[in-house]
Amino acid sequence: MNRILICGANGLLGQRLSLLLSTQTDYEVLNTSIERSFVFDNMLFDYNQLDLTNRSDVKSLVSSFQPDVIFNAAAATNVDWCESHREETWKINVTAVENLIDGARKTRAKIIHISSDYVFDGKNGPYDEEAKPYPIGYYGKSKLASENALRSSELPYVILRTNVLYGSGIGIKENFALWVVNSLKSGKQINVVDDQIGNPTYAGDLALAMIKSFELKRSGIFHVGGGEQLSRYDFALKAAEIFGLDPSLIKRIKTSDLKQASPRPMLSGFITLKAETQLGMHFLTVSEGLKLLKHELQHISKN
Ligand SMILES: NC(=O)c1ccc[n+]([C@@H]2O[C@H](COP(=O)([O-])OP(=O)(O)OC[C@H]3O[C@@H](n4cnc5c(N)ncnc54)[C@H](OP(=O)(O)O)[C@@H]3O)[C@@H](O)[C@H]2O)c1
Fold first, then answer.
1. What is the DSSP letter of 252?
2. What pTM was computed for the model?
3. Architecture of 2-173+199-228+268-286 per CATH?
4. pLDDT at 43 over 90
């Protein structure tokens, strides 16, 4: 039986990974995250608190659990916060990965890690896996450094780069789709940029791609993104349509109007042919993903 260690299990992606793996009988899964307790019932899921920035804790947990594979869904993900909290960002996004590498060396566990389209400058997306990274903000720099740590580790690894990740979860941070839906539901006007382009990724698809990359024994870099390239503004309009909300509350603006602390890759997104062919993935379109999100939110509000 393969042993799987999930890091960052309380986050959007981590919860999804945990749920998908909980339905499979051929894995022994240990969920970990920085918080004291897991969002799901401890009776059904094995959980250990683990701060990935603590080298000795990571080492001792990895050597006692002896995972075959480590799924790393933990990260500092608030791009503007990262710009002004560089030391903390480096610890969570880079030192943590170095700690996992260090811990995995003895058992030679495979590390399956998540990176971002922010490793690119956004001048000529969508990008394939051969494109040369050139991060323009600190978050992207830290994600690229985490990739480089893995690539030079001589351990088996997979890096899945993703963009505009969305989905539901318990107590998660508000992602872009949730922000749009929650704002429109409460009748709030929102300003949305029409000049940042990407292919939004449904979190369930990314979790599935991670699992498939392990099961199919793949290695290297894969680009993961939804089946549609569009602007944030068009994504928000689509959300209004699917959720039956008022689209006139969505005001079209430019990125330069926002004066954000960190620069954004503008023309971004991914070519996902490699993941489709080598992982057998079929990525959801925005309409399909938003319909699933609507269903999930109805379910969460009922319980
Ligand atoms: N969201 C996007 O649009 C996007 C786009 C491209 C790539 N990504 C990447 O996708 C991956 C998953 O993102 P996500 O949206 O699922 O993020 P998320 O919801 O913020 O989840 C990350 C989890 O990691 C935890 N964590 C933070 N520091 C930790 C530490 N030192 N030790 C252990 N756990 C720690 C967080 O806990 P706290 O909440 O308590 O900090 C959180 O539960 C990340 O690698 C991210 O960089 C995301």
1. E
2. 0.97
3. 3-Layer(aba) Sandwich (3.40)
4. no
